[in-house]
Amino acid sequence: MAKQQEHIRKPEWLKIKLNTNKSYTGLKKLMREKNLNTVCEEARCPNIHECWSERKTATFMILGDTCTRGCRFCAVKTGLPNELDWGEPMRVAESVKVMGLKHVVVTAVARDDLADGGAAVFAKTVNTIREENPGCTIEILPSDMKGDYESLHTLMDSQPDIFNHNIETVRRLTKKVRAIAKYDRSLQLLQRVKEVAPNTPTKSSMMLGLGETKEEVIEAMDDLLAHDVDILTLGQYLQPTKKHLDVVKYYHPDEFAELKEIALSKGFRHCESGPLVRSSYHADEQVSKTSAQRRINYMKGYETQEDKEVDFNF
């Protein structure tokens, strides 16, 4: 009989003070009134009070609140989703306007029940946000759509400012941690984005503390760079419930700082690394100058040759 893993006590640096002020409660009320979901709530993000209270940023989760996959790290509900809600894109766009966001992250539950993985609704959401909020930059965080690259074209036609797709963990642990998703398929998806839209910054994230080694984390960095990924985020895995995977290790902030130095020295354009860092943490600060220029040109209705050739800097 396998030995049960000893429970590891959460360290002091992971204890945060809640700040449920009027800004936070107001945004929470708005989400319910608009019948919207946020990954901030569904995934029990530890930064929700900072983002909602101080930064007034949020990550909208579209395509419903029920995921067709059952990843062993994720708190989002799993089951058979409802029918598509084509009114959702406008409600998201209206909420972005009410919140006064200058940058928004749009993610979604995995919808393997749909032929396009929900790409059409994703693209409509991006386009509607942009129509209702000129100048707002947009990051998208889709699933792998099971490798359907036609759906990827549908997504990229909406011209997101950042394309984010998370490998979540190292190669060895992928099968244990992620449901259906495959390590190499995620890398290939990120590479395809560069083939479709070479100037669009790409981004990926890993959770640490699931049993990976430092060498495996560095190997994953190399794999991401080999597939032209620009931005990396590293954060501590926190067990949502007792039914989910156990935490094997809590990384010290100094270890996260060291990994950030390694990532930057290897060539990532930007790296967020810390115990409470999540994929969309401080996402508003990660938008490149080129992305902003592309958005200005989009609003004018053209894309200049200079814009096509210029590189971006963080």
Structural class: alpha/beta
Number of domains: 1
Q: Which residues sit in consecutive blocks of at least 5 with pLDDT less than 50?
A: 302-314
Tally of separate helices: 12
Query: What name is given to the CATH topology?
Result: TIM Barrel
Structure description:
With 314 residues, this protein is an alpha/beta fold. The chain contains twelve helices and ten strands. The longest helix is centred in the middle third of the chain and has 14 residues. The chain is globular and about 45 Å long.
Give the SSE layout.
Layout (H helix, E strand, L loop, with lengths): L21 H12 L3 E2 H4 L5 H8 L3 E4 L3 E2 L9 E2 L9 H12 L3 E6 L10 H14 L4 E5 L7 H8 L5 E3 L9 H4 L5 H14 L5 E7 L5 H13 L4 E6 L16 H14 L3 E4 L15 H12 L4 H5 L5
Helix pairs in contact: 1-3, 4-5, 5-6, 6-8, 9-10
Features:
314 residues, alpha/beta, TIM Barrel, eight-stranded mixed β-sheet, two-stranded parallel ribbon, 12 helices, 10 strands, 38% helix, disordered C terminus
